[in-house]
Amino acid sequence: MITIYTTPSCASCRKAKKWFEEYKIDYQEVNLFNTKLTKTDIIRILDKTENGFEDIISTRSKIISENKIDINSMKMHELLDFIIENPSILRRPIIIDEKRLQVGYNDEEIRTFLPRKIREELMCDGDICKRESKQCNYLEALKEAIRINI
């Protein structure tokens, strides 16, 4: 199951949710201001990062900059507790499933969350289909594939 960690005022979060809804991909939304993260949640996210906390924390967040907090000097358990108490320091949206993680919204990268069968059917490089070497409209082809339940 795909989980999207969001906040209400986040435009990128709204784009991500709209994308999943448009392509009829089920997801679970976790509003970071209404649902308190657990250490297990954060560790699950960290497990899929390349650079650990650096990938998920916005060092430009108001809390960090105004209080001059040096997250690099914090021990892991301190940083986990700090995130739990201050979820607004997380970059958003955080999109995760069993295999993948995406932080922020990116039109190209979010496609990795499409079911594999659909991605294989629609392997497009720009506007040229690799399989048939003809012009294609990626979004129309994707919508058709979803409509016929590939």
CATH topology of the largest domain: Glutaredoxin
Task: Tally the beta strands.
Answer: 6
CATH superfamily of the largest domain: Glutaredoxin
Query: Do you know the CATH architecture of the largest domain?
Result: 3-Layer(aba) Sandwich
Q: Beta fraction of the residues? A: 5-15%
Structural class: alpha+beta
Q: What would the average pLDDT be, to the nearest integer?
A: 86
The largest pleated sheet is described as:
4 strands, mixed
Order of helices and strands: EHEHHHHEEHEEH
Count of distinct structural domains: 2
The residue fraction in helices comes out at: 25-40%
Provide a count of the helices.
7
Unreliable segments of 5+ consecutive residues: none
The assembly state of the depicted protein chains is single chain
CA radius of gyration is 18 Å
First-to-last CA distance: 19 Å
> In order across it, which strands form the biggest sheet?
2-1-3-4
Q: What is the class of the largest domain in the CATH system? A: Alpha Beta
Query: Quick one: overall form?
Result: elongated
Give a quick rundown of the structure.
The protein is built from seven helices and six strands, in the order E-H-E-H-H-H-H-E-E-H-E-E-H.
Characterize the structure shown:
By secondary structure, the protein is an alpha+beta fold. It folds into two domains: 2-113, Glutaredoxin (3-Layer(aba) Sandwich), CATH 3.40.30; 115-150, no CATH class. It is 37% helix and 13% strand. It has seven helices and six strands. The protein has helices at 11-22, 39-46, 53-56, 62-66, 76-85, 116-121, 138-147; strands at 2-6, 27-31, 94-96, 101-103, 124-125, 128-129. A four-stranded mixed beta sheet has the order 2-1-3-4, with helices on one face. Strands 5-6 form a two-stranded antiparallel sheet. The longest helix has 12 residues, at 11-22. The protein is elongated. The protein starts with a strand and ends with a helix. The mean pLDDT is 86.
